[in-house]
Structure formats: structure tokens, C-alpha cells
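Collaboration report, partner site 2.

Our partner group contributed sequences for two proteins of shared interest, and the home lab folded both. The records are reproduced in the order in which they were received, starting with the first partner submission.
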Amino acid sequence: MARRAKAAKAVWERAYKGHVLWLGKKKLGRVTVVGDGRYTWEAAGRGGGANDLAKARKAVEAAVAMADKQLDLFG
């Protein structure tokens, strides 16, 4: 039986004043500390804010997942 290649999995990595989501050498999104426990996130052309790091990370993952499934409007 032949082995199947595993799909690459996105990995969170700590960065300067935040976290970055990587897929291999491609940066998918990032979460940055604004101050007073607030975080901003950017991914797939979208952005937002959150009061919790876990919520900001989930927002980045959701934006990346939606970008993979949704077709470009003008592309």
C-alpha cells in the first residue's frame, strides 16, 4: 500500500509583540498586542480586534479557512 503525503498544517509561532500563523514559508496571518489586553488581527485581507488572544487566533484561522473556500470576486 502506498503512503499518502500528509497535508501541511498551519503552525502558530511567537513573534515580536504578537503571534504569526505560518504554512511552511508562507505567512497566513498575524495577531498583534495593542495594549491593555487588546489584540488586533490581520489575515486574508481582513482585520479586526479582540479582547482575548484565543479569540484573535480563532478569528485568524476562520478568515484563512474562509479565504480558501471562497472564490475571488474579481480574480
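Second partner submission, folded after the first:
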Amino acid sequence: MERKTSDKSIRWICGILFAAFAFCWLYFFQRELLCAASNELLQDNETLAGFISKQYLAVSLLLTLVALLLAIPGRILLRFAKGLYACNYLFSALFIGVITGYDEESLLGQTRTEWIVAGACTLVLFLVCKVVSSVPKSKYNDRPRSFAGNLLIMCLLFCMVGILGNTNEYLHRRLKIESLYSQGEYERLLQVGRYEKETDVTVDLLRAKAMLELPADGNPKGSRIGDMLFNYSILVPSGLANELDYIDNPQAYLASCLLKRDITSFADSINLDEYKTLPAFYMQALILADDSRASVKFPQQYQEARSEYDSFLNALESVKDELQRIQANTTYITYHTTYYWFYTFR
């Protein structure tokens, strides 16, 4: 009776562990990727694709259930028990890994190397477990050894899922940004990858468009871009500037001028009377352009921005004889989110 109770406990623990991992993997880590994959797979059926995106919790639970059910043929075919019982989830792990391999080009985006590694791991794990299962074992400390063996096998299966599944952090981040933009979640979008240096032209454009959609608190619509644009890494400033030129919004044009470092056109185009508070990067650009109008209309803000500019110039003075790369690196930590730094080094 005690042995049956122990075996039953092991089966429950393995099932709960795998179910928890599969659900978290699908719902929290692979959500945008699976939604993008379903959109490509069901591009002729937008209704079903939309349902999957909106009811992703139910979809994650369903896929988790399918993975758990695959343990049944695993148990029948592989016939592992006690300390090796977790190996019966081999098919389940392969299923979870395979369906999360999308790479924007193929639903099964795994590379040849990944298939070879996963196949080798599967074969080795199976053979080792078969060998271990055939070796007579002492009953001493049987239950702890069984739990430890199953936990080890579960960890190996989770690693196999990671090998087959798409773990490209940047791809997941970009897909999340695209998803949030389509939902109009602009504030949340701008928090995704806020401090990451890796970016591309698509992400840069979506961020800029999101900034143009944010409430402006008494300023012209879209002017929040003047407070946020240079807080992010920008891969190709000139390319983003050209994209902004196609947007019918004066703030997009002003941002384009800043990206092109055309502070003369910027100063000629901005109407300070439209602003309740001048966006930070706009003020910095006017200081660089030696435009004194802002000092009259926004005296305190002008003084603060001017003080920061003087501080930046002092920092540059201390490394004036160094290469520009060294100057940029020396001032990066303190000033890289200012327009002064961008204008000087980009």
C-alpha cells in the first residue's frame, strides 16, 4: 500500500510540475510568438486568429492539457516508473518545444543544429533511463531517490523545451511591441525594452508613433515625443526621420528635424505660443540653436536646461584631447538621454 501511495504521489507531482511549466511557458513567455504564428497560419480566417489572440488564456490551458494527455501514450510506450516516471513526459516536452519554434519565417523555425541537439538529448535520455531501469536497486532511501530522479529528468525535459522553443528575447520584445501598438496600449508599449540597447527600424518607428499618440497635457497633440524620443536607442536616426516626414503631424516634423540635427529648421518651425510647458528635447534643441525666445517664455525651464548644457560642455572639456569615441563613452552614462549628447555624437 505504501509503495502504491508513493507511486501515486510521484505521478501527481510530475503532472503538476509539467503542467505548471507548460502553462507558464505558453502563457507568459510565448504569448506574442504563438499569436503571431496563429495569425500567419490562419491568415485566411481572421475571425479565428482574432479569437486566439483575445482568448489566449483558454488557448494556453488547452495546449497544456494536450501536452499532459501526450503523457498517456508516453506511459504506455516508454513504461517508465518510480524514479524514472518523469521520462514518460518526453513526448509532451517535444510537443511544447515544437509548437513554440516560430521565427517569423517558418512555423517550425528550429535550426538543423537545434533539431540535432534535441534529437540527441532525447535519445540519450531514453537510453540512459532504460539502462537505469534495468539495474537492480536497493530499497534504502527509496522515496527520496525517486523524487530526486524525477526532478532531474523534469529539469532535462524543460531544457529540451528551451532548445526547441524560440527563446530569441529581441524577437519576443518586438512582437510584444507590435501587439501593444495594435491594441492602442501606448504607455505599456513604451515600457517594453525601455533600457535595452538592441533595437531595429520597426521598433523605433512604433515607439515614435506611440509617443505621438500619448495625451499631451495642454500641449499640442503628439508633443510628448519631445520629452521621450531620445530616451531610447535609435538604430538609424535618418531613416526614422524620413518615416516621420510622412506622418501628418507638426510634432512628427519637429522630431524629424531633431533626428536630422537640423536645429535651424526646427527653430524656424516651432511655435512656442502653442505650448504650456516646452518638451525637454525641444528646449535643448533651442539652446543649441542659440534661440533666446524660450528664455523669455519659459525662464525657469530654460535655466535648468542651460545649466545641464553647461555641465555637458564642462564634461567634454575634460576629455577634449581624446578621440570622439572616448568623449562619447565618457559622457554617455550621464548625458546619453539628452539631445546635447545625440546632437554631438550621432
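Feedback sent to the partner group on the second submission included the following. The longest helix spans residues 2-29. The chain has a mean pLDDT of 91.
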